[in-house]
């Protein structure tokens, strides 16, 4: 009897190990070809991208495509950002390990997981309730304990846990939301795509009471929507 169970068990074990290894090597290739070759240098960011299992953040039908150089659909007309953009935005935040970070636009939770590898605490807000719920479960199942997810309107920020050392916005508002600027700590950094159909990725730094804004590259994100 136990022999009968052992063989299918062995096959299942092999296919699981093989599946995991396949994704590890796809992930290594993604980091090499899409991230390092394009100029991302921060070792900690590179490590985080090698660590987070991106294929577990996309719907099953896109699993095999999880490591390609593109955004992918995650349902509700939303997308998980292209790996390079995740790496670039994360690098711009210059995280050292202890920071409190706010993300607007949880989506799949992938960017939040990358941030959680690099910072102390991550707070992430998603306007679409079912996406927020799925991301929260996914992140919990993957063992992340330093991420808080809430469904709500990112334009309001998250007053209760403010101010933040870093803020990352992964949907595009027409201009920088005032509340988010308010909730950014002195010396803090915000990375945000700003514009209507086409956007510019901006790095916003609060320095000595002033706000310094730098244009980084043109990007395309889904719009940041207002709660009705
Ligand atoms: N960071 C995500 C990808 C984000 S896609 C990931 O790693 O998968 C952008 C997300 O922003 C979408 O899920 C969209 O629903 C959300 N969004 C749009 N407007 C918002 C708002 N006002 N507040 C919070 N989230 C918003």
Can you walk through the features of this model?
The structure is a single chain. This protein is an alpha/beta fold and 228 residues long. The chain has a domain at 69-219: Rossmann fold (3-Layer(aba) Sandwich), CATH 3.40.50. 36% of the residues lie in helices and 26% in strands. It is built from six helices and nine strands; from the N terminus they run H-H-E-E-H-E-H-E-H-E-E-H-E-E-E. It has helices spanning 2-36, 43-51, 83-93, 110-118, 129-141, 178-182; strands spanning 72-75, 78-80, 100-104, 121-126, 147-151, 164-169, 184-194, 199-207, 210-219. The strands form two sheets. It has a seven-stranded mixed beta sheet. Strand 4 (121-126), helix 5 (129-141) and strand 5 form a beta-alpha-beta unit. Helix 1 (2-36) crosses helix 3 (83-93) and helix 2 crosses helix 4 (110-118). The mean pLDDT is 93. Bound molecules: S-adenosyl-L-homocysteine (SAH). Residues 78-81, 104-105, 107-108, 110-111, 125-128, 131, 153-155, 170-171, 222, 224-225 line the site of S-adenosyl-L-homocysteine.
Count of DSSP H/I helices: 6
Largest sheet: 7 strands, mixed
Helix content, binned percent:
25-40%
* Rg, Cα atoms, Å: 19 Å
Enumerate the distinct ligands: S-adenosyl-L-homocysteine
The H-level CATH homologous superfamily of the domain at 69-219, spelled out, is: Vaccinia Virus protein VP39
Query: For this structure, what is the CATH class of the domain at 69-219?
Result: Alpha Beta
CATH fold assignment of the domain at 69-219: Rossmann fold
Residue ranges: pLDDT <50 for 5 or more in a row? Answer: none
The geometry reads as: globular
Spell out the helices and strands N to C: HHEEHEHEHEEHEEE
Q: Strand content of the residues, in percent?
A: 25-35%
Structural class: alpha/beta
Average residue pLDDT: 93
Q: Calculate the terminal CA-CA distance, rounded to whole Å.
A: 61 Å
């Amino acid at each position: 009897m136990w022999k009968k169970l052992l063989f299918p068990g062995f096959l299942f074990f092999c296919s699981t190990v093989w599946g995991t290894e396949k994704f590890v090597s796809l992930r290594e290739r993604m980091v090499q070809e899409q991230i390092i070759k394009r100029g991302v240098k921060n070792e900690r960011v590179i490590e985080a991208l090698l660590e987070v299992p991106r294929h577990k953040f996309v719907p099953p039908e896109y699993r095999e495509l999880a490591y390609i150089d593109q955004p992918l659909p995650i349902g509700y007309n939303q997308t998980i950002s292209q790996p390079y953009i995740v790496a670039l935005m994360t690098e711009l935040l210059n995280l050292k390990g202890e920071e409190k970070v706010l993300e607007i636009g949880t989506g799949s939770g992938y960017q939040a997981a990358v941030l959680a590898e690099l910072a102390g605490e991550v707070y992430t807000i998603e306007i679409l309730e079912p996406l927020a719920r799925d991301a929260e479960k996914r992140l919990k199942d993957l063992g992340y304990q330093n991420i808080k997810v809430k469904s709500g309107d990112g334009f309001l920020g998250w007053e209760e846990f403010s101010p933040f050392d870093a803020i990352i916005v992964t949907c595009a508002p027409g201009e920088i939301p005032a509340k988010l600027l308010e909730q950014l700590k002195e010396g803090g950094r915000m990375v945000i795509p700003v514009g209507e159909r086409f956007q510019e990725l901006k790095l916003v730094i609060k320095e000595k009471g002033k706000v310094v804004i730098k244009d980084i590259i043109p990007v395309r994100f889904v719009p940041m929507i207002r709660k009705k």
